[in-house]
Write a structure and sequence with these properties.
By secondary structure, the chain is α+β, with helices and mostly antiparallel strands. Helices cover about 40% and strands about 25% of the residues. The protein contains twelve helices and 15 strands.
């Protein structure tokens, strides 16, 4: 048990057991799957080390923060990240103050250049505005570098299936029935389907112009959560071919739709994605979830935003736009932090452009055209 100069009755401890960590997390308000022990295990395979910290008051668990640390090459410091955390009752001002003090102490102990958090706190509420004020007072700054989506779309799963359907737009209900009539079938995927799902995911990334990681990363992540019954793979098939798929994660009473893939071309007329989402919603309800996080929404509600089409698809299922406060950083060395956040990305961008231009000049014209 470590006090770290906290007021009497408050204690900060390290947790070493997956079961103890997850059980404590599930007793807190709005636990997030990215704060689960399993997420830390996955990230530990990609250069991060996990540091699970728990804050207790009068013997009761009041906050938890899965701190991920990545070492910086050639220097004694690292960078820290608490994905979608810490988890605590953000409306409790005393707990927020002590939790922020604890995070600062942890950042010092782990020799972090800076620590990033991006909790699910609504900035449009009085509680959210107070949290932002407390963050600023404690030395945190809004970060220009977001790792997760700043906003999302939340779907209320409470009530009957008829209630959930009634909250959808009429065209979405029609498209679900259309997919059924046209022979689209949704099934649970298995570990051996992951390679084909990734191929479809990569096709989607090329078509919609977003970056993805290599297959090895996703295979480890997906297989890890599938094996622990914390995720399912759903695949939509038409005429024996996989035409759409999604990966759904579960933790507590929430489900998260984080990865989706679909084929382009004429098959989209059969509306496989509508039926796929409906079956995901039904499965989440059977798992006892009352909220379905559709994972990602535009930074601004404007048709010019690149995510506008995806956003319209999600809200058609009855989803509601949900803003979060976004990423906040605690810099421990202000000048080095400024170099890392502002100067280094610009330098790397210029270097990348220079290398690309240099390679193009060395490449024969015929090869460049290919």
């Amino acid at each position: 048990m470590v006090s770290l100069g906290l007021p009497p009755g408050w204690h900060l401890t390290r947790v070493s057991s997956a079961r103890e960590w997850n059980e404590g997390l599930l007793r807190l308000p709005r636990p997030h799957v990215l704060q689960s022990w399993e997420w830390g295990e996955v990230k530990a395979q990609t250069g991060w080390t996990m540091h699970p910290w728990r804050l207790c008051h009068q013997g009761k668990v009041v906050a938890q923060a899965l701190v991920l640390r990545r070492a910086l090459p050639g220097v004694p410091w690292g960078i820290g990240y608490v994905p979608k955390g810490p988890i605590l009752a953000w409306e409790d001002e005393a707990t927020v103050r002590i939790a922020l003090q604890s995070l600062a102490e942890i950042a010092a102990r782990l020799r972090l250049l800076f620590l990033k958090i991006d909790p699910d706190v609504d900035p449009t509420t009085p509680e959210g505005a107070r949290v932002i004020s407390l963050l600023r007072t404690a030395g945190w700054v809004p970060s220009p570098q977001a790792i997760q989506f700043r906003n999302t779309v939340l779907l209320d799963l409470r009530g009957t299936e008829e209630d959930v359907l009634a909250r959808m737009k009429p065209k979405w209900r029609y498209n679900i029935r259309l997919a059924m009539r046209r022979g689209v079938h949704v099934r649970l995927g298995r570990a051996e389907d992951l390679a084909q799902f990734y191929a479809l995911y990569a096709e989607t990334a090329r078509r919609d112009r977003f970056l993805i990681r290599p297959f090895a990363y996703y295979h480890h992540l997906w297989q890890h959560f599938l094996a622990r019954d914390m995720a399912v793979l759903l695949l939509a098939e038409w005429e024996g071919n996989i035409v759409a798929g999604l990966m759904l994660f579960f933790f507590g009473r929430r489900a998260w739709y984080m990865y989706g893939a679909s084929a382009g071309g004429p098959v989209r007329r059969h509306m496989p994605n509508h039926l796929l989402q409906w079956e995901a919603i039904r499965l989440a309800r059977r798992r006892g979830c009352d909220v379905y996080d559709m994972w990602g929404a535009p930074d601004r509600l404007d048709e010019s935003d690149p995510m506008w089409g995806v956003y319209r698809f999600k809200v058609g299922f009855g989803g509601v736009f949900q803003p979060w406060i976004g990423p906040w950083d605690l810099p421990r060395y202000r000048r080095l932090y400024a170099l890392y956040i502002h100067v280094l990305p610009q330098t790397l961008h210029r270097l990348s452009r220079w290398l690309t231009h240099r390679q193009a000049r060395r490449t024969p014209p015929r090869q460049r055209q290919q």
